[in-house]
Amino acid sequence: MPFHLVQATIPPDAADAVSEAFWQAGAQGIETLAETEAGLTLRASFLAAPDAPALQAALEQTLAAFDYPAERLQDFSTEPRPYEDWLAKWKADWKAQPVGRRWLIVPPWRRDEARSQAEWAERIPLDIEPGMAFGTGTHETTRACLRLLEDLPSPRAILDIGTGTGILAIAAAKLFPQADCAACDTDPDAVAIALENARLNGVEGRVRLSAGSAKDFPASRFDLALANLTAEVIASLAPDLARVLRPGGKLIVAGVLTDRRAGVIATLSAVGLQLRTERVDGEWWAGLAEAAPRRPSPR
Questions:
Q1: Mean pLDDT rounded to a whole number for the chain
Q2: Can you tell me the distance from the alpha carbon of 6 to that of 42, in angstroms, rounded to the nearest whole number?
Q3: Which of 69, 180, 275, 292 could form a disulfide linkage to 157, CB 3.0–4.6 angstroms apart?
Q4: pTM
Q5: Where in the chain is the domain with CATH 3.40.50.150?
Q6: Domain 95-291 is of which CATH architecture?
Q7: 3-83 homologous superfamily
């Protein structure tokens, strides 16, 4: 069954009102195709062919409420399109993606294909269902964490705070098979998703998942903590992030826009965590900080 697209260019300040007119006419979705100071091009999709003259009149009437003449409704057009299986198309477009030197992010339906590629034979596969909780490996923040993680020496105990899909905890469990791995999230649904992804990756028995946050873990327990969160959440958790680390422990933080970098570094420094290295990917910053080493006992 075909569907129908309606496209129009309008003054940008009338976008919300025009979108509402589209919804009222039965639109199933609306997207912005282009935006300039002079005009905004919207495209709406309809399951059935809309009454084009009536819809055009409704849009012109909407613009009139903003004191715009009918001529400001430009490039109005309707077009039937054949039906497409968008889910199948989306899956076909989603490929396995190498990240850093060690990782390969693999959607489950690409597992066999990815395993058969000789150039990826030495990479560690992370089988993650796209579109689940945050952390599918494609976002800049997750990529930065994975790149920082692959350069670290093997820790004894790891904590992933705000685990989302569980990708970082799963990656750590695969990279450091002798380490004790724990992960938490304040969202119980995310914990359930992470558990399923751990099972998919064969590490369900090695990653202990729980609902909660850093405050729920004992002091000086972990050699490595992972916190792909936001600048605000990192700031609020900073004392607990420092508390759970052993002397000399490492902390990877991410989810921070570059213009918040200095504030996060200062917050970590105030709780005794000193920046050792950092990465920038687009507008996103990630850093590796270290707790002070244990002082030798006086003789």
A1: 91
A2: 8
A3: 180
A4: 0.71
A5: 95-291
A6: 3-Layer(aba) Sandwich (3.40)
A7: ACT domain (3.30.70.260)
